[in-house]
Each structure stands twice: as C-alpha cells, then as structure tokens.
Amino acid sequence: MGTIEFEFSRWEQGELSGFDLGDMTVTGSFGVHSSSGQRPDQSMMIYLGIAHLVSGVCDLAQGRQKSFEFVGTDSSYSLSFKRRRKEVVVSSGRTLLGEVTMSELLHALSRGVREFLDIPGNQLPPSEAADEDLRASLRALGHVLQQYG
Fold it and tell me: Which residues are 74's β-sheet partners?
C-alpha cells in the first residue's frame, strides 16, 4: 500500500480567528496537491476546512458513503476520496495522489491535524465558534480511529 501525508498551515493575519485563511498540502505516493501558490488563489478558511475534511473522512470510514468530495471552505481547492475494496483512492481532479488503507488515511489525517494544532499560535480560543466544530470533528476522528486500531 502507499503513503499519504496531510500538512496544514495558517497565514499570520493578526489576532487569531476561526475564519483565518491557510493552506493544505496532501502528499501521496503518486503526487502532491497543495492550495498554496495557486492561481487563482486556493487558500481556504483553514479551521472550517479541517473540520469539514475530518468529518467527511470519518463518514467515509464508517461506511456512510463510498466517496467524499472535499472542497476547501471559501476556496476551489478540492480532493476526492473513493473507497475501493480495501483501499481509499485519493485524487485531485484527474491527478492520482495515492492509494492507502482506511487506517493509513485516518492516522495520516490525525497526525497532520495534531501537528498543526500543536503549534501554540494555531490553537483557537474556546470562545471561537469554529473551535467547537473543529473539536467535534476531532472527537469523531478519535472514535473512528479506535475502530480501525
């Protein structure tokens, strides 16, 4: 099976907000797709984007759907996740990024989000509405990860 990595970044924009812009980069065995440096701009509201991505992948892992099309919040950056037998195919448009097991996908996503949130300047205050969405999606990810080991 292949590998996949998620990297998230937030633009320095002054006071921290749940609507801050940022970028996402997905690196797979077959390719890389990033919102950074694209024309037109594909940066997204990073906290809302992460929450949406995590929730969609959790739904995919729990069998609620066979595919998930992620589009970054307030962005045109997109990723496609399709279950195929024992693997998940990750692509962007017609570009294949990787083929991984569901467990590998979940662990990579969890690792990428954890690395992003471990940076002190990226931690939203609990008073931010986006913080609750993000925390709820991360709780769901934790439950799904327990199922996949």
Answer: none
Question: Which pTM value belongs to this model?
Answer: 0.94
pLDDT value at 13 more than 80: no
Angle between helices 129-148 and 46-61 (to 10 degrees): 30
Q: How far is CA 138 from the centre of its chain?
A: 11
Beta strands in 41-108 (DSSP E): 44-45, 67-71, 78-84, 87-92, 95-100
Which residue range forms the structural domain that includes residue 117? 4-148
What does each C-alpha distance from 99 to 58, 93, 110, 131, 145 come to in angstroms?
17, 15, 17, 31, 18
Domain count, the chain: 1
* pLDDT at residue 3 tops 80: yes
- Tell me if residue 27 falls in helix, strand or coil: strand
Compute the distance between CA of residue 148 and CA of residue 140 in angstroms, rounded to an integer: 13
Pairwise CA distance, residues 104 & 46, whole Å: 22
